[in-house]
Structure formats: structure tokens, C-alpha cells
């Protein structure tokens, strides 16, 4: 079993900042095999969309165009944690943010954390 648990969601005003984090753990979790971690989000009535990802070994990152220059993904391999720093937030960033991890052939999803941006 491998678990991803998100922390840090909440309410923020437009233009503000928020950081969410995701911790990986579990009986069969092997940190060295978690090759990629990232974030997706799902707004009400919309499909889940990619936000950002980081390759845990090399640190390469990829971002959705809608968040480039505003969001930063980072990881702490020693803590099996990935972070998403969100700056200059917009109301359209409101969504449930889900952490995702790739370990071998498995894709693991977290339950999600609500992020709400008020205008």
C-alpha cells in the first residue's frame, strides 16, 4: 500500500499565496522508486487537469500554461514530500488539488485538498 496525503488547502484572496504539500508513505512505499510526483486539480463541473510535475531524481519540472510563472513545484526526497507554492492566485485557481505519484507501473492519487480563491 502506498498513500499520498495532501495538506495546506484553504481560502485565499485573489493575488495571495498558498502552499500545499503532499506526503508519500505506506507499507510498500519505496522512495527510490517514486520517479515522479505532481499535482492535478479539478474545479466544479470541470474535468481534472494537469497543474505541475517534478521528476524526483533529476528535479526536472513541467507546468501547465495557466500556472507558469505563478506556481512552483518542488520536492524534498528525504521527507518524501512534494510542494506546490502558489502565488498571485486567481479565482480560476479554485479547485480540489490532487497529488499524484508514479512508482514503477503504479499511479497513486491522493484524496485532494480544497483550494478556494476569493475575488
3D architecture notes:
The chain is mainly beta and 119 residues long. It has no helices and eleven strands. Strand 5 (49-55) and strand 6 (61-63) form a beta hairpin. The strands form two sheets. Strands 2, 4, 5, 6, 9, 10 and 11 form a seven-stranded mixed beta sheet that branches. The protein has a four-stranded antiparallel beta sheet with strand order 1-3-8-7, with no helix packed on it.
Describe how the helices and strands are arranged.
Blueprint: E1 3-7, E2 10-13, E3 18-25, E4 34-42, E5 49-55, E6 61-63, E7 71-76, E8 81-86, E9 95-103, E10 106-109, E11 113-118
Parallel strand pairs: 2-11
Antiparallel strand pairs: 1-3, 3-8, 4-5, 4-9, 5-6, 7-8, 9-10, 9-11
Q: What does this entry show, briefly?
A:
This protein has 119 residues and is mainly beta.
Give descriptors for this structure.
0% helix, 4-stranded antiparallel β-sheet, 7-stranded mixed β-sheet, single chain, mainly beta, 119 residues
Shape: globular
Largest sheet: 7 strands, mixed
**Backbone CA Rg:** 14 Å
Strand-residue fraction? over 45%
Amino acid at each position: 500500500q502506498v498513500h499520498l496525503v495532501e495538506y495546506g488547502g484553504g481560502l485565499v484572496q485573489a493575488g495571495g499565496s498558498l502552499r500545499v504539500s503532499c506526503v508519500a508513505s505506506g507499507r510498500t512505499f519505496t522512495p527510490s522508486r517514486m520517479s515522479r510526483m505532481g499535482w492535478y486539480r479539478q474545479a466544479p463541473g470541470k474535468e481534472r487537469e494537469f497543474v505541475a510535475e517534478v521528476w524526483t531524481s533529476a528535479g526536472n519540472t513541467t507546468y501547465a500554461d495557466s500556472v507558469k510563472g505563478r506556481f512552483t513545484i518542488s520536492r524534498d526526497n528525504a521527507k518524501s514530500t512534494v510542494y506546490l507554492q502558489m502565488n498571485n492566485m486567481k479565482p480560476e485557481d479554485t479547485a480540489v488539488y490532487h497529488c499524484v505519484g508514479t512508482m514503477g507501473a503504479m499511479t497513486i492519487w491522493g484524496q485532494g485538498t480544497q483550494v478556494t480563491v476569493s475575488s
